[in-house]
Amino acid sequence: xxxxxxxxxxxxxQPVDRTPVWFMRQAGRYLPEYxxxxxxxxxxxxxxxxxxxxxxxxxxxRRFKLxxxxxxxxxxxxxxxxxxxxxxxxxxxxxxxxxxxxxxxAAELVRPDVADALHIVPKTLDLFRKLEPNTPILGFxxxxxxxxCYLVEGGGSKSWKxxxxxxxxxxxxxxxxxxxxxxxxxxxxQLQMDHGVAAVQIFDTWAGILTPEDYKTWAxxxxxxxxxxxxxxxxxxxxxxxxxxxxLLPTTGADVIGLDWRVDIGExxxxxxxxxxxxxxxxxxxxxxNEEITRRVHNIMRAAGPTGHTFNLGHGVQPDTPITGxxxxxxxxxxxxxxxx
Amino acid sequence: xxxxxxxxxxxxxQPVDRTPVWFMRQAGRYLPEYxxxxxxxxxxxxxxxxxxxxxxxxxxxRRFKLxxxxxxxxxxxxxxxxxxxxxxxxxxxxxxxxxxxxxxxAAELVRPDVADALHIVPKTLDLFRKLEPNTPILGFxxxxxxxxCYLVEGGGSKSWKxxxxxxxxxxxxxxxxxxxxxxxxxxxxQLQMDHGVAAVQIFDTWAGILTPEDYKTWAxxxxxxxxxxxxxxxxxxxxxxxxxxxxLLPTTGADVIGLDWRVDIGExxxxxxxxxxxxxxxxxxxxxxNEEITRRVHNIMRAAGPTGHTFNLGHGVQPDTPITGxxxxxxxxxxxxxxxx
Lengths: 341, 341
Fold this sequence. Notes:
The structure is a homodimer.
Chain A: H1 3-11, H2 32-38, H3 43-47, H4 50-63, E1 69-70, H5 77-81, E2 87-88, E3 94-95, H6 103-107, H7 114-117, H8 120-131, E4 137-142, H9 144-153, H10 161-169, H11 171-194, E5 199-203, H12 212-228, E6 235-238, E7 256-258, H13 265-272, E8 277-281, H14 290-304, E9 309-313, H15 323-335
Parallel strand pairs in A: 1-4, 4-5, 5-6, 6-7, 7-8, 8-9
Antiparallel strand pairs in A: 2-3
Helix pairs in contact in A: 4-8, 9-10, 9-11, 10-11, 11-12, 13-14, 14-15
């Protein structure tokens, strides 16, 4: 099987010659060649330049035997596209100088033409497919609720107090913004599909801050709405906290569920029925000894079973992860032989 | 029923006249009278003075119709007792100038005589019971794994990288420290029981950073060991992330499970069998309108059922929580009438 066939089969739950592997944030700060580029340009400049973004997307493929790439970008261009500036300060996460906290703020938001407002990633995809036609590439977007978190909070947070206050105090405005985000995200996923991605993933990173009732009101319906707007290739749904919502995840409309490391992948598959899954090594495992990494990778593969599994981390790779650990993980995926053979 | 009878019954799953209520961090920064005291003494001075600690423990009882108090203290005195200094800088969480990262560091730790090293809380309990004999008071401790997190990391963390690195790279040292912590915590719980607490709670706040396999190796056995060392009154186990481990929680040896807000309390009770529970309002709900707080409190009470439930937040109250929100929550607990009546 070539990489395209292997990824396509795994994401559709069909038999594969071996489990494919890629990992979240594989193009990023743990790579010296990425830091070399970042020494010359800022994160935002990198996200805004298709040539550089394509180069960075290609970097991990040169080092590691990976079965897929994910386009280098961020989830926040969608927030900029609907009308809010995002800045990145060194050593901090993203900041929105003007967060959206009330109906008047929300009225300033605009529903963008995604082909116009979000043209960098499509260009990056076109370049990548020309330079590296043998490797499937994934597109992605933030899920509507997770984008709302940044839009309202104005940056990362421990409590997400402002976001939850909006949900509690002005549900009408929150629903309005989420609807706008869902349609924009859906159109953006379709745009990436139209530029040849093999799959798309939405990241509902912060859905896990919600109660199950709030998840059903604020996160799930808008993830469904975004995913329903795009079709053509497999769609993946990832949340950093899948355990509380596991039973609900088959209703997202996604074809594949990306699991974080806090669930047993074998038990999760029982709950998810015949849905393919992706995951779920704890990214911090990569700081451990090689034998321990191998043991953990093989345990996951044994529990996940041979079909319908794409190997991945359970969250993005950490910026100072040792490259030897990444090598050990990928070697372990390649060396796995199920005892049932 | 008086407060003692009501709490005792709820924690044992016996019938009550109404669901009792207290909440985590009810003695704390959201109260102006607490901030008044803190304008004169530091957090560590407050924790080290039984008269002041008792006064602060009493404060929320004067404002709110609460069924129990929890002794004012912190989870980190146990870390100091086994040999590591803890400092608190303004605006930051706790810091350990000398974290424990290797076998040589661990060899410096000492198994303390808890009656000697942890004498403040017993004195505070004696004072409280003299001044407020009508209100039951809970004792508490950090669970061994959560204490290990602070001990190794040297403070709060997003990734808990150093802690996980120790587990991966030097499991022998990690098990040694956890054993020492478990025995110390167990003795400390017994000491608090000997000074008249109505119940004890252990906080395994950070257990949720672990995979299920790691939870079974590093958190669960040491929580069991600590809880097994103390007996006499009901024992509660709380973790900030109960969803991934729900099935395992009846094996902790606790009598009552404290649930965070990310699980449906009704569904959790089905998994936990006949174990009494405590919880589980999202603390950020208290920033919402009163009617919405009431609706959420009543939904929780309806889902939890009339017996074996102690009402609480799903995590500690936030420092800038509006007092009106706290009043609304407590009023809602008192005003609830189950539709089955």
